[in-house]
């Protein structure tokens, strides 16, 4: 019968008598200490009914008693003890004398149960089992605390999910970033707790690309690479892992899912890939300069000469015109490639970036101001100069603004914001255009990638190259339909003074 049934009957399952047991002990010795531990240790309440020590009899003269029973009444014989304590309903005999046990069995009334020294062996065994269990539980609690501490210190997001995708447990990183107490997230779908590093939503449903689904079907570890755009429009890279958890019968009972932010590592890898591409492009450009440009000039020259000939009819002139235009396009592409791989001119000089931005805004306003485009400059006062080449930085700004204009064919506002942040001079160029998708953000800085029909894909890649050669950094933030922000971070120029010689020390 289960505990619920006994609880409703209101009786103790031990001997079917009412508890608690008022215990009278007959005899002393080592077993008394074990018996006292069974009576007073709360750990045994899980195994035995409640007991309390009423009195002790038949003690060995001169033998010291344990501290737990120093105040307990002591009687010379068990008969005196039972007469003085009629509430005793359990007598435990630990004298080891079979005659004493036999006498007790004959004299005890039916309302008093007896455990003699032979039967007490079973309680001693139960005592040892409970002690061992206590050690194991203590060790298990320590191990559980240690494992939980380790998991909580892991920076990755860890979810323990059931096979329906509901949260069974999660580490501290997840619930702190979600801003919801851990207990409130248990039992809820995992996507309600998953967040990006800035606290924005990771997904709004159980994402079909999540490896959770594959592990659910395969029963093996699965992983996937996903991209997300955070609240600021910056592209983030995540590696998702799913691990099956099996029960004692070998059936998959849970799935552990881990989110690892690999944005920084991915950016480093992309940077190295770009450097490798630059090296290849440099070799190709050298070959093109020697093997293609001279024949290209000859073709273009002859085509231009033919175009001026009065002997050509209209159809022939159109064909020659196509040759001229295509040679110009090839020459422009070749020039861009050569400029792209051309070594940096050097560290340059101190450049007033605010002044460069104003010059660019005025230049672009002349060409596009009347076409519905507005250029706004916001600059903090007393910004330091940056180290670089003024013409190269101006080229970067012009190319960025042209991209913004192309993203706003109907006109719009372009804001150039200059400030000082984390020790760098920061320029943010923001438009109100069509924005960029995750795929476009991912590939924006790749050489030769372009969304324009006539683009060569070197614009942003060249900007990135120029800024990084100046010791700076470029980031893109965008969302479809919400515009784009290009951020340039450049270190301030260092004002190093030449040491002044102390004339007084001259001889």
TrEMBL record:
The cross-references to Gene3D superfamilies, in alphabetical order and at most eight, read: 1.10.287.130, Histidine kinase-like ATPase, C-terminal domain, PAS domain
Q: What lineage is this protein's organism placed in?
A: Bacteria, Pseudomonadati, Thermodesulfobacteriota, Desulfovibrionia, Desulfovibrionales
Q: Which domain of life is it from?
A: Bacteria
Q: What is its EC number?
A: 2.7.13.3
Q: Which UniProt keywords apply?
A: ATP-binding, Kinase, Nucleotide-binding, Phosphoprotein, Transferase, Two-component regulatory system
Question: What sequence ranges are listed for the domain PAS?
Answer: 143-188
Enumerate the catalysed reactions.
Answer: ATP + protein L-histidine = ADP + protein N-phospho-L-histidine
Q: Name one GO molecular function term.
A: ATP binding
* NCBIfam families (alphabetical): sensory_box (TIGR00229)
Domain called Histidine kinase: residue spans: 287-494
Listed InterPro entries: HATPase_C_sf (IPR036890), HATPase_dom (IPR003594), His_kinase_dom (IPR005467), HisK_dim/P_dom (IPR003661), HisK_dim/P_sf (IPR036097), PAS (IPR000014), PAS-assoc_C (IPR000700), PAS-like_dom_sf (IPR035965)
Q: Which organism is it from?
A: Pseudodesulfovibrio hydrargyri
Q: TM spans, by residue?
A: none
Name by which UniProt lists this protein: histidine kinase
Q: Which residues form the PAC domain?
A: 220-274
């Amino acid at each position: 019968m289960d505990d619920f049934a006994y609880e409703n009957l209101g009786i103790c399952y031990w001997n079917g008598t009412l508890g608690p047991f008022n215990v009278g002990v007959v005899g002393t010795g080592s077993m008394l200490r074990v018996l006292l531990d069974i009576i007073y240790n709360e750990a045994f309440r899980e195994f035995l009914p409640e007991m309390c020590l009423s009195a002790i009899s038949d003690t060995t003269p001169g033998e010291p008693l344990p501290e737990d029973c120093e105040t307990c009444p002591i009687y010379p014989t068990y008969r005196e003890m039972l007469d003085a304590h009629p509430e005793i309903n359990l007598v435990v005999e630990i004298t080891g004398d079979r005659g004493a046990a036999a006498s007790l069995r004959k004299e005890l009334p039916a309302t008093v149960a007896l455990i003699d020294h032979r039967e007490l062996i079973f309680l001693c065994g139960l005592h040892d089992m409970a002690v061992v269990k206590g050690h194991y539980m203590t060790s298990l609690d320590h191990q559980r605390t240690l494992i939980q501490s380790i998991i909580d210190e892991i920076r990755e997001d860890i979810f323990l999910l059931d096979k329906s995708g509901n949260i069974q447990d999660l580490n501290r990183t997840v619930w702190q970033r979600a801003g919801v107490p851990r207990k409130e997230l248990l039992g809820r779908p995992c996507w309600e707790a998953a967040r990006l590093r800035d606290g924005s939503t990771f997904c709004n449903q159980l994402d079909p690309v999540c490896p959770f689904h594959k592990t659910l079907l395969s029963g093996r570890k699965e992983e996937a690479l996903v991209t997300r755009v955070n609240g600021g429009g910056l592209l983030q890279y995540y590696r998702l892992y799913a691990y099956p958890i099996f029960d004692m019968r070998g059936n998959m009972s849970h799935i552990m899912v881990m989110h690892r932010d690999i944005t920084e590592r991915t950016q480093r890898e992309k940077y190295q890939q770009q450097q490798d591409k630059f090296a290849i492009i440099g070799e190709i450009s050298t070959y093109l300069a020697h093997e293609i440009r001279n024949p290209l000039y000859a073709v273009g020259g002859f085509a231009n000469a033919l175009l001026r000939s009065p002997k050509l009819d209209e159809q022939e002139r159109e064909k020659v015109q196509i040759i001229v235009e295509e040679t110009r396009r090839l020459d422009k592409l070749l020039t861009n490639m050569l400029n792209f791989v051309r070594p940096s001119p050097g560290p340059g000089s101190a450049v007033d970036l605010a002044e460069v931005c104003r010059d660019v805004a005025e230049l672009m306003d002349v060409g596009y101001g009347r076409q519905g485009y507005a250029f706004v400059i916001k600059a903090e006062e007393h910004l330091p100069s940056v180290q670089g080449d003024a013409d190269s930085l101006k080229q970067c700004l012009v190319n960025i603004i042209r991209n913004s204009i192309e993203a706003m064919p109907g006109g719009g506002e372009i804001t150039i914001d200059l400030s000082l942040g984390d020790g760098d001079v920061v320029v943010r160029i923001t438009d109100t255009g069509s924005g960029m998708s995750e795929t476009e953000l991912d590939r924006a800085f790749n050489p030769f990638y372009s969304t324009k029909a006539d683009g060569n894909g070197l614009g942003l890649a060249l900007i990135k190259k120029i800024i990084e050669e100046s010791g700076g950094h470029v980031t893109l933030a965008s969302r479809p339909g919400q515009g784009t922000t290009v951020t340039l971070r450049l270190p301030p120029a260092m004002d190093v003074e030449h040491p002044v010689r102390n004339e007084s020390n001259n001889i």
